[in-house]
Amino acid sequence: MRRACTLALMCLALSLASAASGDSSHPQLQRVEFLIDNGAPDLALRLLSNLQPDPSDSQKWMDWERLRFSIYREKRDWDAVQERLVLLPSELPAHFMHTLLTQGIEVLIDSGRGDSVRPFLRELLWMGSYDSVQVKHWRRLTIRGYLSEGLLEDAQSAMAIYQSEFLPNDAGWSLLYARVLLQAGHPAKAAEYLATVQDGEGRFLRLLSRLRSQTDSPSQVIKQATAMLTSLRSDSPLRTALRALMAEAALLSDNLTVRVDALEYFYQLPMPAHLKGLYEHDVDQLWQAYIRLGEKTGNAANLLIGDDESWLRLAESVSSAEPIKARSIYALLAERTSNLVDKEAHHLRFYLSLKQSHREETAISLYTDKGRFSTVQQVPNAVRLQLVNLALARRNITLAASMAADLSDVGEGIDHLDWSLKRARLAIYTGKFKDGAQIVQDLINDNAVLDKDSVDRILQVIFDLQAVNYQRAAYALLSALYQQTSERGQQREILFWMGDSLRGDKKFDGAAEHYLRSALFDNDGRDMWGHTARYRAAETLTDAGFVEDARRIYRSLLQDTADPTRRAILERSIQQLLVKDQEKSSVSH
Question: Which long-range contacts (CB under 8 A, 24 or more apart) does 42-47 make?
Answer without folding.
Answer: 42/75, 44/71, 45/71
